[in-house]
Amino acid sequence: MNAAGVMVEKENDKCRMKGTKNKNILVIAAENSAENYAAQVVDQFKKNNCAVTFFGVGGDQLAQRGVDLIIHNKELAVVGIIEVVSSLVKLKRYMKILFNAAVKRKADAVLLIDYPDFNLRMAKKFKKAGFRVYYYISPTVWAWRYSRVKLIKQYVDHIFIIFPFETPIFEKENIPFTYTGHPLLPMIEVNQTKEDFRQERDVPGNELLVTLLPGSRKSEVLFLLPTMLAAMELLNKEFTIKVFLLKANGIDRKLLSPLLNGSPIRVHVLDQPRGYDLINASDIVLTTCGTSNLEIAIIGIPFTAVYRVNKLSYILGKRFVKINLYSIVNILAGQEVVRELIQHEYTVENIVTELRRILTDKKVREKMLTQFQHIREMLTQDKNPSEIIYKKIAKDIFSIASGGQEPF
Predict the structure, then answer these.
(1) Which segments within 46-102 are labelled E, that is strand?
(2) pLDDT at 102 over 90
(3) Domains 3-181+381-401 and 194-379 share a fold
(4) DSSP 20
(5) Domain spanning 3-181+381-401 has what CATH number?
(6) pTM of the model
(7) What gap in Å lies between CA 208 and CA 84, rounded to an integer?
(8) Is it true that domain 194-379 has CATH number 3.40.50.1110?
(9) Where are the domains of the chain?
(10) DSSP letters for 315-373
């Protein structure tokens, strides 16, 4: 066994030795992307044989890993200021349920992932009650509501950040943090070639494969998908296309059915397990702003980013926004690499115009793909983010349990 193997074995043994009594970690992964990252962390604890039990908020992925779901994350899938306000009573009830569960199970740590409006309130409750609070995926204080750094400083013991440009912020604010790199890079895996996927799905060479990503929340799908479908109908008059829709885990097919049945365009719906293969096989993607933008860029497929929320939510939220770019790909690049069709610009005509521009102008596509490569290089890191998080949390909770003696 090499030196690295011996080190891992020793860490595993000490984790088990100090963990004669199971430790409990409350995790809140309220969104589709957050659950993906939470699953990586849970897997890392299992890989290292740590005697840790996870419970809290998540979806089917976490349930399959043995996480005891107190609340399924589809219950928390709201977006926009007005939507959050209208759901406030329900959200407060969930906060109380989670807090009581943490108290009852004597949680040794709390791991909050993204979802800042909910999770920062939970951080305050947990910290005041004496729980050790970790936060993964920082609130976008660099984009809007910088004042949230005060909440992080006061109520979060340690924050794990994923973008290099966030480092100076937390250094300046003297907030304990670790830069992990982005968790998407190690998890993006294409298992099927573009040619094989298209052959399997009966997409001949003379057809364009267009993929729609209408969002991971019910409200996003309802706001965005009808316009996407109308744009596909118009695009189909100019190009021979086959349209696929990548369904988020938290979206029920029953929600999609009436919208798709009302469209003259046949749409092939695929679930998440085939998502990266689908994106890789696509000629172009039309997607909501969000984590999907980075996934598509890392795979290297041209796309257009769109978003629309309740009008009042947009007006109220825009007051706090400090940047003019919404897609994380554009933010990382420092320029508009992909076109953003936001709110009133999100129209059928604008979508078709932009997709046409990308499909017919080789220089536009090549420039976009070059920028995507630069972003991949920027985010590449040597260590796995979940391993970094595992080591920090395990060291802390087992050290505390053993009267200050470190487990590693």
Answers:
(1) 52-58, 68-72
(2) yes
(3) yes
(4) S
(5) 3.40.50.2000
(6) 0.76
(7) 38
(8) no
(9) 3-181+381-401, 194-379
(10) HHHHTTB--S--SHHHHHHTS-SS-EEEGGG--HHHHHHHHHHHHH-HHHHHHHHHHHH
